[in-house]
Design a protein that fits this description.
The complex is a heterodimer of chains A (about 325) and B (about 170). By secondary structure, chain A is an alpha/beta fold. Chain A has 12 helices and 9 strands. Chain B is built from 4 helices and 7 strands; from the N terminus they run H-E-H-E-H-E-H-E-E-E-E. Chain B is globular and about 45 Å long. Classes of the chains: A alpha/beta (about 325), B alpha/beta (about 170). Chain A: This is Aspartate carbamoyltransferase.
Chain lengths: ~325, ~170
């Protein structure tokens, strides 16, 4: 198990180069509005690339991106792999659970071996909060760390792909009311979304959940808390339904899934409480009939598949910016 | 050093484009202008109005196709390229404000060919400077200039378009 208690500095300090560029991408916390908007702008440009016949750019040609997934996630790993390949990088997919560390090799040994293979970026998914931060503090300065989800802490690329989806459908963040429904307690996605929406200046961020699925003092993140679905959805412009993480419930926090659906499920009926032009989002994979009705997930207001497309563009942006930040860092060091 | 005014350079470029259309037997309906961000787009917009093409103007941002990522990192302010027409078998005039090393044009050609295979690409440049690092020359050129050492030409715009001297960054 890692020791996360001796973290050097805040995430923001670790993530940025001395001139304020992205060096690692670990957490939304502490990043500026300008930097988040730069990520969105670059991702927008990559969306343009993906509309062409050839969906690749040569930006990371000759670079190597290693996907280090200590926790399973087919979709996130696939989009990171596709993003790296569309940047022309070589990609190593390592399922760490079934490889070196399971044979007794320490994490640091694994990292050192990957560094010796001249990897330029590690995409890290881990069930422990702070894992990406810890790895960033251990690797050589020429490796960029991208957090692909750590414990209950952060999932910053998911949050940014959601921000890109919102911006493309709604334009400015300033007038928007955004509601996040469901398992806030276990959701690293919700935490990153709330931070990003506040930094980007959304008018109001709401969380809607039963008290058993709300973290203590969640308001401190910058959101209004609702335990009644109707009140929470009143006049919102964006509705984000979270996946009910059944594997993390341990049977203790909810009576039944059907009861959750009855009180918090996003259905055509409950969606009518939101603004008539509200869009519906979901980070996937969807539990149909648990947190969202199929007719809503597949309906005209759903932008769930746009989120998937935007996810590749965001990951292309973050990978290229972080590797670029490492490049600038090396240039400054050698100057 | 006195830099030339823009309108006479555009007059010359327009005249050379008309000559190219005649000399190469280009079909106006199949001809398209593609400007390279940022200055090249400004020049391409002016030329597009002057020669009254029906094909909409295309724009390229070559930021993702540059060859100096390993040294410079990601350039700032990259925009999406926009080619609102099928470039397959089309005659194109690629427009930039200044051609010097030729590396921007190299990147633009690589990007263009990711969208399809044009039948012909001509290069138009407002200003041509010495210092070519690649075998690339403008087919259509407003003016070829020699500059004092350490100086570069900078185009400001879009309204008005003006040329000024700038100190070259090393």
């Amino acid at each position: 198990m890692f020791d996360f208690t001796s973290r050097p500095g805040t995430s923001a300090q670790v993530q940025l180069t001395p001139d304020g560029r992205l060096r690692h991408f670990i957490d939304i916390d502490g990043l500026s509005q300008a930097l988040l908007e730069e990520i969105l702008d670059i991702a927008d440009s990559f969306l343009g690339v993906q509309q062409g016949e050839v969906k690749k750019v040569p930006l990371l040609r000759g670079k190597t991106v290693a996907n280090l997934f200590f926790e399973n996630s087919t979709r996130t790993r696939a989009t990171f792999e596709l993003a790296a390949k569309r940047l022309s990088a070589d990609v190593l997919n390592l399922d760490i659970q079934t490889s070196s560390t399971a044979k007794g090799e320490t994490l640091l040994d694994t990292l050192q071996n990957l560094e010796a293979m001249q990897a330029n970026a590690f995409v890290v998914r881990h069930s422990d909060s702070g894992a990406a931060h810890f790895i960033a503090s251990q690797v050589t300065p020429r490796v960029a760390i991208i957090n692909a989800g750590d414990g209950r802490h952060a999932h910053p690329t998911q949050a940014m792909l959601d921000m890109l989806t919102i911006r493309r459908h709604k334009g400015e963040f300033a007038p928007l009311k955004v509601a996040i429904i469901g398992d806030i307690l276990h959701s690293r996605v919700a935490r990153s979304q709330i931070l990003a929406l506040n930094i980007l200046g959304a008018a109001e961020v709401r969380v809607i959940a039963p008290r058993t699925l709300l973290p203590v003092n969640v308001e401190a993140l910058g959101c209004r808390v609702f335990t009644q679905l109707q009140e929470g959805l009143e006049d919102v412009d964006v509705v984000i339904a979270l996946r009910l993480q059944k594997e993390r419930m341990d049977g203790a926090l909810l009576p039944t899934e059907s009861e959750f659906y009855r009180y918090y499920g996003l259905t055509q009926e409950s969606l009518a409480w939101a603004h008539p032009e509200a869009i519906v989002m979901h980070p996937g994979p969807i539990n149909r009939g648990v947190e969202i009705e199929s007719a809503v997930a597949d309906g005209p207001r759903s932008v769930i598949l746009d989120q998937v497309t935007n996810g590749i563009a965001i990951r292309m942006a973050v990978l290229s910016m972080a590797v670029s930040g490492q490049t600038r860092q090396r240039m400054q060091a050698s100057a | 050093m006195t830099l030339p005014d823009i309108p006479p350079l555009l007059d010359r470029m327009q005249s050379e484009i008309e000559s190219c259309i005649d000399n190469f037997g280009l079909t106006r309906e199949r001809l398209a202008l593609v400007g390279i961000h940022t200055g090249g787009v400004w020049i391409a917009e002016k030329l597009h109005q002057r020669i009254a093409l029906t094909t909409p103007l295309g724009t390229l941002d070559i930021g993702f196709w540059r060859d100096d990522f390993n040294r410079q990192g990601l350039p700032e302010g990259i925009r999406a390229s926009h080619l609102p027409f099928d470039i397959e078998n089309r005659d194109l005039i690629l427009v930039d404000d200044v051609v010097m090393s030729g590396r921007t044009v190299r990147a633009a050609l690589n990007e263009l060919f990711d969208y399809g295979r044009p039948s012909r690409v001509l290069l138009a440049s407002l200003i041509s400077l010495p210092g070519r690092e690649l075998p690339i020359q403008a087919d259509i050129c407003g003016a070829a200039l020699e500059l004092p050492a350490g100086q570069r030409v900078k185009l400001s715009g879009p309204e008005p378009l003006t040329l000024s001297l700038d100190t070259a960054r090393r």
